[in-house]
Specification:
alpha+beta, five-stranded mixed beta sheet, about 450 residues, about 60% helix, 10 strands, flat, three-stranded antiparallel beta sheet
Length: about 450
């Protein structure tokens, strides 16, 4: 499974994969339709069933194909220029990490593939077209004309697509939906998830008294994907216990042990377990939920910067962060011990806590928005939403974090109406976390 995900991830990361694939198809179609021209011309049974208007002579065919190829090349150039404008906007207005969302978008790659393949089809057909063996009428230029009409439709769609993607609200929503989808794929609900029992990790304390074997990565990069189940099955087969010292999204260099492995009965090669992990030059949201939160936080911080000063965009990011954290709080994210079907410990991961995700989502925003009442109130509203839809454990973390927010508020002096407004938000939050914050908090 990890190999398939790895290949798909690599292909999606390659901006020219779909355009190259479409170009190869266009070359093949050029040869096919040139041969079809000969077949239609010499086959009276088939040729007579096609209206004569769809056939052109050599001179008209060359004119049509030359015009179409030049037009499609111009459309492709305009499209690439538009893409560069979008990428520049993403870099300056949003975050460098958000480039990945637009470049890996299948609509963008597919539209460029259609334009490039249309140009290649026209130019290759023009190259192969010859008046020989009595052949004087051609059907291929008609196909090129139809293809050019399709390209015009795609060009209109491309302009519409770019106009949507350039809107920060759509970008924020897309990142949020991708992150929530990743959460649902990689974590189980708390109600149905297997929770680590006290006896599940009894081997961990005992095994750490022994010296482990180390596995080092050959090519450093960001940890993108872990294939858990096959890794556990291989560990069971070799009778080993594996401890991973990094988390998804961490950068792993070749000089730091990536895995600690304790063989229990036989000698093994620790490097073979690296095949169950995939590393890349950049982080990916396939399993790395924290990367999606990081993108939202960076857009929020960019909007709060003095050069941009767009608190409404920051509030939109905070709302989406609250939505993602609401889903995350309903999942079993703290599981760190994985046993085989015989309940023997096989894999140990670094434990993750909801409080860490909560802190990383808002601590920078709180710092840079400590003077902005609208953004502070948006944070409290987001915490209110997260607390409303989650259990008592999450509510306790929300209460703890709200105390941290109030600590920052106490360092500032607010006007009377601002103070009254924030008090109201704190009272609503206290109600959903079942605490008496409003009795203790003084701003």
């Amino acid at each position: 499974m990890i190999r398939l995900q790895t290949k798909l991830l690599q292909l999606r990361s390659s901006f020219l994969f779909l355009p190259s694939f479409y170009s190869v198809i266009a070359i093949v179609l050029s040869f096919i339709f040139i041969q079809l021209d000969y077949h239609l011309f010499y086959s009276t049974r088939i040729g007579t069933k096609i209206p004569a208007i769809f056939f052109t002579d050599l001179e008209l065919a060359q004119t049509l194909l030359g015009t179409i190829s030049a037009s499609l090349l111009t459309m492709t150039t305009i499209s690439f220029s538009t893409i560069m404008v979008v990428l520049t906007t993403y870099l300056s207005q949003f975050s460098p990490r958000t480039l990945q969302n637009f470049v890996n978008d299948h609509h963008t790659q597919r539209i460029l593939g259609v334009f490039i393949s249309g140009f290649i089809f026209s130019i290759v057909t023009l190259l192969l077209m010859r008046e020989k063996d009595g052949l004087s009428l051609f059907f291929s230029p008609t196909v090129a004309v139809i293809y050019a009409m399709v390209c015009v439709g795609f060009f209109v769609f491309f302009i519409h697509h770019v106009s949507l993607w350039i809107q920060v609200s759509n970008l924020i929503h897309q990142i949020s939906m991708n992150t929530i989808e990743s959460i649902h794929k990689n974590y189980q609900d708390k109600q149905v998830a297997h929770h680590d029992a006290p006896w599940d990790d009894w081997e961990s304390a005992e095994i750490k008294q022994k010296e482990p074997l180390f596995a080092y990565v050959s090519d450093p990069g960001y940890l993108q994907i872990i294939d858990h189940q096959p890794l556990i099955e291989q560990a069971k087969q070799d009778d080993v216990i594996i401890e991973m010292r990094f988390q998804l999204g961490d950068y792993v260099d070749k000089y730091t042990p990536f895995l600690h492995i304790w063989p229990l009965t036989k000698k093994i090669n620790p490097q073979k377990y690296l095949s169950y992990f995939h590393f890349g030059n950049e982080r990916a949201i396939v399993q790395d939920v924290d990367f999606g939160l990081t993108k939202l936080v960076e857009i929020c911080l960019k909007a709060l910067s003095p050069g941009i000063n767009d608190p409404n965009t920051a509030i939109s990011c905070i709302n989406e962060l609250g939505k993602v954290l609401t889903v995350l709080g309903q999942k079993n994210i703290e599981r760190c011990f994985y046993n085989d079907d015989n309940r023997a410990l096989r894999l140990m991961l670094k434990q993750q806590h909801f409080r860490d995700y909560l802190y990383r989502s808002f601590y920078q925003v709180r710092h840079y928005a400590n003077d902005d009442v609208s953004v502070l109130s948006a944070i409290l509203e987001a915490l209110n939403v997260v607390a409303s839809y989650n259990d008592n454990d999450v509510k306790k973390e929300i209460k703890r974090f709200s105390d941290y927010i109030v600590e920052g508020m106490n360092e500032k002096t607010f006007l009377s109406l601002d103070e009254q407004y924030l008090h109201k938000k704190l009272e609503e939050l206290a109600l959903h976390t079942k605490t008496d914050h409003h009795a203790k908090h003084e701003i």
